[in-house]
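Table S2 (text version). Query chain:
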Amino acid sequence: MQRLAMNLRMLSRELSLYLEHQVRKPQLVTGGESFSRFLQDHCPVVTETYYPTVWCWESRGQTLLRPFITSKPPVQYRNELIKTADGGQISLDWFDNDNSKCYMDASSRPTVLLLPGLTGTSKESYILHMIHLSEELGYRCVVFNNRGVAGETLLTPRTYCCANTEDLEAVIHHVHSLYPSAPFLAAGVSMGGMLLLNYLGKIGPKTPLKAAATFSVGWNTFACSESLEKPLNWLLFNYYLTTCLQSSVNKHRHMFVKQIDMDHVMKAKSIREFDKRFTSVMFGYPTIDDYYMDASPNRRLKSVGIPVLCLNSVDDVFSPRHAIPIETAKQNPNVALVLTSYGGHIGFLEGIWPRQSTYMDRVFKQFVQAMVEHGHELSSM
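Corresponding structure-token output:
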């Protein structure tokens, strides 16, 4: 037992020495000196060296273990169902934070709209952590659950995809109409971030959002799909996510049988096959390539018209390093990319036992606070 403990300590020291030589400060890519200086002054975490958890630094390990390691802070939601123009409904989960001591007036309390990942809901641990951090700041949060994933009844034969921004536009309009005087921000994770960026790229500066943040976005859908179809990545991630997507739509199977061959959909073995047989058909794309082209946010990044911070790890197998649009980001003064050496996909674990907080959590908290409290400085820089 003593020998085992000694060997573990030696291994830990060796890994620490290795990471000290390999780990670097995040690469901060901005399209203008003003945004870069603003982040260095008010969001210093983006210039700090990120040290991944020493026993869990590899990309796939970070990605796989994060949901099991990180805590799930308790959150009491208030659910709201809003109607859509096509007769459907969207489930919103509100955390009103009525006990906020910093912003006791609900009409001016900052609001953060949160967008979960591919099959995620308001119950995801990373969403709960963002709400917990927003609560500390005195902010209100609302989680946008995509159609059909949060237990609500699907009223029309339509689900969601990251290229179609109509539902997000309806949610943003609804939330802003309730609190027009409150600072309004948004944060999207993985597919939620892709949807958010596609919305911002389409609408430009004509949005009520003051700023936005994205985490572990897949920038180029073709590159994401190709990476996830490599044998090990398919085994660890792709097949499981495909089954989650199939389970999600199979609950509402009766709504789709007239327009989609659901038996064929349920035989899909990858996300690409699912998208070819279901998503691209659902949203009227002639081919899967047409859908993937429209879904890739790198095409619209140059048109984003509000401050956006995008955190990615360059070892993320969901979003390969070569597909990150560094040169495009340099051409837009509203965009900042924060690229870490490690972190995986929505991982960013740090510390010996990373249960309470991740690097991603710290970036989220500092950025939204910076934009609420000091965002006006950007316009004067």
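Notes on Table S2: The radius of gyration is 21 Å. The first strand starts at residue 27 and ends at 30.
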